[in-house]
Design brief:
There is one protein chain. The N and C termini lie far apart (53 Å). The protein is built from 20 helices and 24 strands. It is an alpha/beta fold and 607 residues long. A hairpin with a 2-residue loop joins strand 9 and strand 10 (220-225). The chain folds into 3 domains: 5-222, P-loop containing nucleotide triphosphate hydrolases (Rossmann fold); 230-312, Alpha-Beta Plaits; 353-411 and 520-607, Rossmann fold, CATH 3.40.50. The protein is globular. The protein has a 6-stranded mixed sheet, sandwiched between helices. Strands 20-21-22-17-23-24 form a 6-stranded mixed sheet. A 4-stranded antiparallel sheet has the order 2-1-4-5.
Length: 607
């Protein structure tokens, strides 16, 4: 037993039975890892990497099939309750009670954990100050935004002062402002209370804050170390490449990713493309295209991508690029597909969306951004025809949603944030069901099902229940069902929430190809890098439009309110503002101008 280790796992293995079969899936395969007391450690990796399984083992909720695991010096398999008495675990779907107030949720968890009455008030005061929830004690948990719910969940988890805190993707679905505040809380716990924290995350910039990082893939540990050592895998390979005049960054990204012999990764960044070259030929892709480039320091995400590519045998989903369609828009594709004028939505006396106006053209990728509780989800639901407007006008493909909502819906496809297909039906059965729901019949239905099955590389999975698909393939199936009826407009509600960088790159290659073929795409996202894929974006807060324009125009607006380098993520080391910094600057400046005078995450709830 090592008293300096909070967690010590040796040669851990864990299998799970596949429902309805005699087969098993290997969730964890011979993983060894150690986490020092008082440290902040991160587990990162693609969907199905084994992160949640390891955290649940550490929490004493499941036991390994092989290997040994001690937590705080205790053998978890032998004494799970002894471990659970000294730790706190916040799963991805933390169980708040929506019909209880903030204070009542805290009281409930204090009762469950046996926190003595004489210690509660001091602990509550500490948690309220830490999370800025004090002014919302009487508010029902169900009336809080996503970011505030996460902070309440964290407060409930911490109600008994644990020695070890396990957090399973605590910032999934949380906006950048709330994400920043959650991490400030976590870091203060480590610094001020010497708490040991182990967190799984899909955000590599979050892992960059940690002292230890464990990179997992398919249940195996690919690499471990501090962020600096993992960045070294991409050292000397990272460049910023400038697109040709008149070409969007996503066009250049697609061409670089097509060069699999020379390119590890490419992603839009501040109107340009950040690329990682392969081996000693790192500059070759840009040189072959004759484009200007400059070297930049490697990030943890760059090292992550190199390691994943070197250890990946899977092929990417095939994407057909349409080079001609990627050129600047012409008169023939300037048709307006969505027209919003003075849109208002009220819930009683509360104004969720206030006098919003914008339009979206055919083949455009339009991003709908905003903090949790800003009104973007309400706007999105009105656009989809799922929620009527209180006032204003809204037309979809020339159809007025006030008078012909059913007709308008036939022209749109929708992919929900949460997997919403039928888990007990196979891939083929889900496709047949949705083909019928969209009114597709006979030979045309069969042809469309065959087309999307091939398009999303689902052929070998036709007889697999959709509930047993890995996360990336669930996303493919959701996209396939949404596109069965060849919609003119595709709505995507936080489609990459919780996805790893590899899955996000693949997803956006598909969206880019659809837009090039004329499909109009409206997307909500909390990954600010994804705003760079959009032709235009709108940022909302407290129901009002704060910014509307191209990513470049939005960054230029933000630069009026920020000094480069003063905000984490504000630049890439070469003076270019990142979209996350631009987003935060615009929202915080608007809140200050409105005289709200509240810390960023609380402003919406208090308005």
């Amino acid at each position: 037993m090592n008293a300096t280790l909070a967690l010590d796992g040796r040669h851990l293995c864990r299998r799970f039975a596949v429902a309805g079969t005699r087969e098993h899936t290997q969730a964890i395969a011979d993983v060894s890892l150690q986490v020092a007391m008082g440290s902040l450690a991160a587990m990162v990796g693609p969907d199905g990497a084994g992160k949640t399984t390891l955290l649940r083992m550490a929490a004493g909720l499941i036991v390994p099939d092989a290997g040994t695991l001690t937590v705080l010096g205790i053998d978890v398999a032998q004494h799970p309750q002894a471990v659970q008495d000294r730790i706190s675990y916040m799963p991805q779907r933390f169980g708040l009670y929506d019909d209880l107030s903030v204070q009542e949720n805290l009281d409930l968890y204090a009762d469950l954990h046996g926190v003595p009455a004489d210690r509660r008030q001091a602990r509550y005061a500490q948690l309220m100050a830490m999370t800025n929830l004090g002014r919302f004690k009487t508010r029902l948990a169900g009336q809080l935004s996503g970011g505030m719910k996460q902070k309440l969940g964290l407060a409930c988890t911490l109600v008994r002062s644990p020695e070890l805190l396990l957090l399973d993707e605590p910032t999934v679905g949380v906006d950048p402002l709330s994400r920043r505040e959650l991490w400030e809380i976590v870091q203060s716990l480590v610094t001020d209370e010497q708490l040991t924290v182990i967190v799984s995350t899909a955000y590599l910039d979050e892992a960059e804050r940690c002292s230890q990082v464990f990179l997992l893939r398919q249940g195996k540990l690919l690499a471990a170390g501090d962020p600096a050592s993992l960045r070294q895998h991409a050292h000397g390979r990272c460049f910023i490449v400038t697109p040709p005049a008149g070409r969007p960054a996503r066009w250049l990204q697609g061409r670089l990713l097509d060069d699999t012999a020379h390119v590890v990764d490419a992603v839009p960044q501040a109107g340009e493309v950040r690329t990682i070259g392969m081996g000693d030929d790192a500059e070759a892709p840009a040189a072959l295209l004759g484009l200007a480039r400059r070297a930049v320091p490697a990030r943890l995400e760059d090292g992550f991508m190199v390691l994943l590519k070197l250890n990946s045998t899977a092929s990417a989903m095939p994407v057909q690029a349409n080079d001609a369609a990627a050129s600047p828009r012409t008169k023939c594709d300037a048709e307006t597909m969505i027209e919003v004028r003075d849109l208002v939505r009220k819930f009683g006396d509360f104004v969720a969306v206030a006098n919003t106006t914008f339009s979206v053209r055919r083949g455009e990728v339009f991003g709908l951004l905003g903090p949790n509780g800003a009104g973007k989800t309400t706007t999105f639901r009105m656009l989809c025809g799922l929620l009527p407007a209180t006032s204003g006008s809204l037309s979809m493909a020339g159809i007025d949603l006030r008078h012909a909502r059913a007709e308008a819906r036939r022209r749109i496809g929708y992919v929900a944030q949460k997997f919403s297909l039928y888990g007990n039906l196979t891939v083929a059965e889900n496709l047949r069901f949705f083909a019928g729901a969209y009114g597709l019949r006979g030979e045309y239905a069969a042809q469309r099902m065959a087309t999307v099955t091939a398009q999303f590389d689902l052929d070998g999975l036709s007889h697999t229940p959709s509930g047993q698909l890995p996360g990336g393939y669930r996303q493919r199936l959701a996209m396939a069902t949404a596109l069965l009826h060849e919609p003119q407009i595709l709505f995507l509600d936080e489609p990459t929430s919780g996805a790893d960088p590899l899955a996000r790159r693949e997803f956006w290659r598909r969206i880019t190809a659809l837009a090039e073929q004329g499909t109009t795409v409206v997307v909500t996202t909390h990954f600010m890098e994804e705003a760079e894929y959009c032709d235009r974006i709108v940022i909302q807060d407290a129901g009002h439009v704060l910014a509307l324009g191209t990513p470049l125009q939005v960054r230029q607006q933000a630069q009026q309110h920020i000094h480069l380098g003063s905000t984490p993520g504000a630049n890439d080391g070469q003076g270019a503002m990142g979209m996350e910094a631009a987003f935060i600057a615009i929202v915080e400046q608007a809140r200050q101008a409105a005289g709200q005078g509240l810390p960023s995450a609380a402003a919406v709830e208090a308005s």
